[in-house]
Specification:
Chain lengths: 254, 408
Amino acid sequence: MSAPATQSAGTLLEVSGISVSFDGFKAINNLSFSIGPAEMRAIIGPNGAGKTTFMDIVTGKTKPDEGKVLWGDLSRNLIGMNEARIARAGIGRKFQRPTVFEDQTVFENLLMAVKNDRNPLAVLFFKPKFKDLAKVEELAAEIGLADQLSRKSGELSHGQKQWLEIGMLLAQDPKLLLVDEPAAGMTLGEREHTTDILKEAAKTRAVVVVEHDMEFVRRLDCKVTVLHEGSVLAEGSLDHVTQNQDVIDVYLGR
Amino acid sequence: MDMFKKTPSLPIFIAVLVIFTLAVTFLSEAYGAGAISTSFVKTLGKTLCLALVAIAMDLVWGYTGILSLGHFAFFGLGGYMIGMWLMYARTKLIVVESMASAALPPTPSEISDAIGTQIFGVVGSSDFPLIWTFAHSFWAQIALVVLVPGILALIFGWLAFRSRVTGVYLSILTQAMTLALSLYLFQNDSGLRGNNGLSGLQNLPGADAISQDYISVWFFWASSLALLLTYLLATFLVSGKFGSVIRGIRDDEARVRFLGYSVEGFKLFVFTLTGVIAAIGGALYYPQAGIINPAEIAPIASIYLAVWVAIGGRGRIYGAVIGAAFVSLVSTYFTGGQAPDINLGFYTIKWVDWWLVLLGLSFVLVTLFAPKGIGGLFDLISHRMSPDRHGLPLGPDKGSLREEEAEK
Ligand SMILES: Nc1ncnc2c1ncn2[C@@H]1O[C@H](COP(=O)(O)OP(=O)(O)OP(=O)(O)O)[C@@H](O)[C@H]1O
Ligand SMILES: [Mg+2]
């Protein structure tokens, strides 16, 4: 077992010793690692390595069989909190498949995500203030959808939906962004734009990106964690991990 | 106002409702030409109440994606609550009057016993059950119209949503609640006169001198006003960010959770609010119907409600109104014996028997070939097209809109 890193002031999220199995199959096996407050981190690994499951656990979708997920300065344990509370605590998530509200406009999607009081009565009497509208416009510009605000998001291209979802993440103003395969299905130009958005975001908050595309990971230019069979196989710079023989055997060499 | 800008159909609806109300008033026997009989005024007033409860159904199903098959139970409960006061107060007047000629003035307990015998004689009892404690007070029963269905919806919703029961299972659960309630009310010792139900509700206490011609129009006005207010409230609910969130829940509730919204809280809010709206509709409906009995709450009634909304076009408020009004009026026509039987020589189609088959068939056809329902016809006029994006449902959830139901 890898010794859990001691919680220091420089840690935003610490995952320690989590395991989860589905019908006896261990999807996450005693996984431990931590992420700093304004850190960009890439997670790579073969299909089924447990990358998405890791995000499910951190965001409260899946309950681990054991282990802790400690969050923030107060090291609060997130296990047992529901998805909505974890999201409000400052963790935003982008899904592997783009999931936006297709029947609603880009504007409505973004406005729904903008950080504001989320209880039903406050939402019912919500009137967008100038700063909310400004935030929506600013984000729309950042994700390249400024002229699409009144379009139904279901009509957007695949890449645009991915951006919209990233925009919704940023609108929540989270301290940690978990981004699952943002570049899937994007053209080269779109990928570059996506890298820029993510790098910009990582200046002020932590960003964890799961991605299969090595070129994309290289452009992110950050520390890389390699997952395999539910635990950390290697960690370090991209060049460092790609030279690791284990990583070559299980992932790159195939 | 924002609401009007986002909902161009709102001023049209208001205009149609006002014109309709005026037209019925000036054609009624009480205030006008008398071209519309008093009993038909009542039918129209009741239809407005059904349109009101259909709006509640559209909010909970068409907008939030919760296929509740129990909202007619709340409607019925609202009717029972107001019915208790109507029956009590009127029986009391009759009893006091009949005792007035006695040599000794009757004591309060004698009056109470006499009222009890009058009301509960049919179920072989004369004692007032506990649930009639407030029946003497108009305002208390009005409060109960809101409180009883509201609290039932709150408790039921809290239990169901907290355990994240969704889709078909939730529908079955709401049917079970409805069935349990109607079976309970069928019992003689339920305190609500078993299968006799409450009757004579068309007679307002102290208004014996006033003809039903007038009372029917007053209730028609009240129903029209209630429908208008419900329509405005529903439009307000769905036009802002709240509408965004509940439509999000309908199409993909997991995603809404990850945005930090408490999906359970929103569902509970909508479920309870619409339960209360349904109850208010019931409180206006049954005085016009004159009688309420447990059969009104039978599970099938709640299913009809879903059928009306589907035929009218869910996810648009005027669709619900049109569906309820159209189907219930056509249903009155066919089941009321007005429709001429069709003689095929070897078999005579009696509409009283065949109407349900026709309704069921229309429901299937609408679901398959015209998912937007009657409301979709308006899209032809306003040239609103469905998007062509080959995505089929607009979200992964059971209640999500189908692609054909969406609009550009
Ligand atoms: N809810 C579940 N029930 C059963 N098995 C599951 C469940 N979720 C994940 N798994 C299994 O756990 C393993 C890890 O899945 P996970 O989705 O985390 O992989 P991944 O690293 O994200 O893979 P990919 O790169 O293909 O997205 C897989 O074998 C998967 O089949
Ligand atoms: Mg995955």
